[in-house]
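Researcher: Sequence of Cbb3-type cytochrome c oxidase subunit follows. Predict its structure.
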Amino acid sequence: MNTFLSIFVTVISLGTIFGCLFLLIWCTKDKMGMEEGAPTGHTFDGISELNNPLPKWWSYMFVFMIIFSLIYLVLYPGLGNFKGVLGWESSNQDVRSLEESRAASAAAREEGRLVQYEREMVKADEVFGAKFRELAYEADGQTYRAIADIAQDEEATKVGQRLFLQNCAQCHGSDARGARGFPNLADADWLYGGSPDAIKATIMHGRKGAMPAWGDSLGEEGVQEVASYVLSLSGRKVDPVEAQKGQARFAMCAACHGMDGKGNTAMGAPNLTDGIWLYGGSRAAVEDSIRHGRAGVMPAWKDILGEDKVHLLASYIYSLNSN
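Model: Prediction complete. Tokens:
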């Protein structure tokens, strides 16, 4: 934070604490000039206010909290840009990539700084890492269990489900049924294949959709014609003449989707004949896909979760279709 904001925060924080101290001292002094316990003359609903001091326990607690807050602000960050004498940090700040995060983590360990996030990650790996390895590996501790076998292991799939909810549900939904632009993982339709190895590879390395925009090449009329032909592949009623013209233009699409329109899992090109649409199957949505292309991106999770967790996560996803 800049110097002005740092000074502002410091003044407000210390001003509030010492203001409370002043208020406490002021309230401990008798301003009434009356004997302790004498009525003040203030009554409400039959209740009379007496000239009594603040309760001792309340005053002592107030003093304790003031002292505690001052000690805390000396030890930990809180007063503007002051880092605290312990050098404690909640996390590595200003990192914008995994590479920067790893470099910052390594630097923190070398310098002996107390970065809370790093300490909790190390502790979590010590506590839970062994369990992940136990569920993911064979008895020899070297060979991964078959994903299809893990998918039948109730305990392992529960762990995989928790990993899914923590990392994947934001896009694919808590029930894994996806949303517009995010594939449904609970059906039998897979852009890159639904085998155990294909699912794991997708999670490990991510996917990048690369359907080009054809609007400029086809023109508006050509987009409509190709859309009619594509819709006809899944049994939709369209203008037969327009669909016939679209079929002639479909050659530029066949390189990925195949001449029969049934797609290509090696390229992630969807099947256009089954009526399942990632970005919507209305005529407007299909035309929009042809006109502007699609470039969806799924991030790679290998470096974020590690292969052991990815293996269990892939097993859970595979179980959604194998049960």
